[in-house]
Amino acid sequence: MKQRASRGVTLLEVMATMAVMLLGVAAAMTVVSQTTRSNRRTLTANQAQIIAEQTLENILQQGCQGSVTCETASNETFDVYQTSEGFQRETAPVDPNIVARKYTVTVDVDNSVVPGSIEDGKAGEPAITRPLVGTTTGTLVNVRVTVAWDEPGIREGQQMVVLQSRMAP
Question: What is the pTM of this model?
Fold first, then answer.
């Protein structure tokens, strides 16, 4: 009986196997990268939503709801910095080791008793200038909070979250 010499793996077979594995690893890395980027966008939008909700809550705590004129709520724009540790700051961090995203918050208040606060006289539907029915009288106020941020290298232009609410006394 004649013995056959054992056949080894040729260089061509090794290179073909490495190419297939390289393609698989590259595809897996692309999926991980895209998932990470998507999670970052979602986290950023959620943080903006929380900032908008907190701003609306602050307006309520200042006494806009229940006030006859709601003079405590006014148009304003300010910046909030959200650090990677989850802290909010009103000023940009000085320490270069602290990573923080800048959010620009814009509060727009349409108040029927404040002249010129309703853009182009558009009072909405149902109108905020309508008389309130029931035991309460006073001013119906439309409050819109916009939180905007930039995502350089990920998306072009500003991204934003908008919350709107009507407040009555």
Answer: 0.71
